[in-house]
Automatic annotation (TrEMBL):
Superkingdom of the source species: Bacteria
Protein name: Cobalt transporter
Species this protein is from: Citricoccus zhacaiensis
Pfam family, one: Cation_efflux
UniProt KW keywords: Membrane, Transmembrane, Transmembrane helix, Transport
Location of the Cation efflux protein transmembrane domain: 36-230
Length: 339
């Protein structure tokens, strides 16, 4: 498929978004290539270290977000059909949830496995080998490798964070957030191996538990955000912390139309784009027509590319689920509820 044909459902991407999407895809392929190298290197030197094993598992899990992103981008490119009238935007949310659950499960496994080793007092051996006639402790290579791996994920994470915000892609954002924090895993692993070299056998398992806790933290926060979006919660910003400002922007635009007395929006995040229902209360006696409703919907769509699917409904009063709405049990009380 030609890259210029990329779209999110009905939404034809602007040249700027086309560039952002291509950049995101390149970054994900670079990440997959980088992870393939790091996973192989860690496997070569990890020996019996619990911390190195945990770092290896975390890097294996790191394959899931970029693969999920690349698959989702292909799926959401398809237009809506009779069987899928809302399009395939939920593929982004599903990919987000799959990646988050993988983190949560494997992080929990690492904590339990490492804690059992700590309780049982396991002393993981780290061997030596001969290099140029000298006996070298293998731990030096482990420590050097983990310290060398610190800068690249942080750099990739920062690049992805910017593109994720431009595309409103929470899979990419979660991936970027985890990469930016990956330095803790590398540093913790190096410290754990160094502790073994100093004779502190428990340092290795403690470092592995620390890594497991970091993975679980990422898993829990991303599971919460993914489930919230899939459960049709009100559209929120890419971080999931605040309501998305486009909700109020759409409502303000609808209220600015001369024949509209009041308006409220019900907006859910479909993945990259929003499904928007605008409830409008017309001025008394204002003439209505399908053309007027279509003009209002098109005006809201033009506000932002994420407002792809807009439905306008005429109502006598705003439902409780939107700003300024009336609670059902209060509809018999004064104001507009008395109609």
């Amino acid at each position: 498929m030609n890259q210029t044909d990329r779209r999110f459902g009905h939404t034809e991407l602007s040249p700027e978004l086309q560039r952002s999407l291509r950049r995101a895809m390149r970054l994900q392929w670079i990440t997959i290539g980088y992870l393939a190298v790091t996973v192989s290197l860690i496997a070569l030197v990890m020996g019996s270290s619990q911390a190195m094993k945990a770092a290896w598992i975390e890097d294996m899990l790191s394959f899931v977000p970029p693969i999920a992103f690349l698959v989702a981008v292909t799926v959401v490119n398809r237009r809506p059909t009779l069987q899928r009238p809302y399009g395939n935007h939920r593929a982004v949310g599903v990919g987000h949830l799959v990646a988050a659950v993988a983190l949560l499960v494997m992080g929990s496994y690492l904590i339990i496995d490492s804690a059992m080793g700590l309780i049982q007092g396991e002393h993981p051996p780290i061997g030596t080998f001969h290099l140029f006639g000298q006996t070298v402790w293998q731990g030096w290579f482990m420590i050097a490798l983990m310290l060398l791996l610190i800068p690249v994920p942080v750099f990739l994470g920062r690049l992805k964070m910017q593109v994720a915000t431009e595309l409103h892609n929470k899979v990419l954002y979660a991936d970027a957030d985890m990469l930016k924090a990956d330095w803790r895993t590398s540093l913790g692993t190096a410290i754990g191996v160094a502790g073994l070299g100093l004779g502190w056998w428990w340092f290795d398992a403690a470092a592995a538990i620390f890594i497991g806790l970091s993975i679980v933290k990422d898993g829990v926060s991303n599971v919460r955000t993914a489930i919230t979006d899939l459960a049709d919660a009100r559209a929120r910003t890419i971080t999931g912390e605040d309501p998305h400002p486009l909700v109020e922007k759409a409502e303000a635009y609808a209220r600015s139309v001369d024949w509209v007395e009041d308006a409220g929006a019900r907006v859910r995040d479909e993945g990259h784009v929003f499904h928007t229902e605008i409830f409008v209360v017309p001025h008394e006696g204002a003439a209505q027509s399908p053309a007027r409703l279509r003009e209002l919907a098109e005006g809201i769509v033009d506000l932002d590319w994420k407002l792809e699917d807009v439905v306008v409904a005429l109502v006598e009063e705003l439902p409780a689920e939107v700003h300024g709405g009336v609670e059902r049990d209060k509809q018999s009380e004064g104001g507009r509820a008395s109609r």
